[in-house]
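Q: Focus on the chain.
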Amino acid sequence: MTAERSDSGLLDRLVRGSLGWLEEARESFRLPPGVTTGADSSLPLKPLGELAELAQLIGALHPLDEIRLTARRLFAFAWNETRHGELFADLIRGEPFAIYPVELYGIFAQAGLRHAEVDELLRTTTRLRGWRVAREDHTRTLGVLNAERRIGLRQHADFSAVLALTGLGRLPEPWTLDRKAAYGMTHDVFHLTDWGRNRQGLSCELAGYLRLWLPAWLENWLEEQLWDLAGELLAATACLPNAPYDPVAWQRLADVQAADGSIPEIGAAPTSGDPGVLFAACYHSTLVTAFAATLARSAADDAGTGPTGASPALVGGRPPAKARVPLDRDGRVPRFAARGRRPGPGLARRPP
């Protein structure tokens, strides 16, 4: 078997196993009764929104029919949980300036699933003076701008101006990247590329910066066994034009996948028999793995070569000019001092 086919097979097994676990865990994604009347309705909606975003992409991009069909079933389940969009009308009437209903509805609107009353409400609420979403979390604002674009609304701010304020837009010194900033940077990439659908959304400058530093960041968090962030970094890598492929990193992630298809967020899977504990500890990292592996597969198909195992640190097959990873005295990539404390199992947090 060629290396190319072997790598494609590994990616497909990761996606197939992950989606299988997610289908088995589907009941855990169901919304609780009275979700629109809680103090913070965004919390129970978060897993369902993540499922919808990533399942919709996998159902559109993966080359295998069986995997696309599984992802589409999960996406249809998510739409059904919103009562075919009626949920968003309830949420917007209760919280006219909340941004999460817009973000979530944008996922379905992009797929052509609309609700007339939601469209009418949003045309009104997003033009009011109170609709101001450019806050401290500029990455989140990029997500809202993308949602406005998906729905067909007027964007409330200039995308490029907001990008310049994000972690990626500032091109920070790479050794200052802690865990929270790393999650933010991956989401900057996702919003710029529409979750990998448009790799040309990354400028040459940003793509070059990421191509150089993603391998070191990835190695760091693989060593920390933070599989969830490693999956996001692999997904961000697959969003690059002419995306590189790191067979060692992918094999390390594949080695973590349990027989049931789940992947823990951090360290080893919890031993608790409580389904809620297991779901919380695995659902996001399992989703991210399926997403990242689909993007890597799609990137290889777009390039017409299949995953090659080429060094992720190479730009166009050559080392980047005037840019080197600083090594320590022993010739190794240094660990990042600003990494932050390691949380307990299932407590690694992502940006909202």
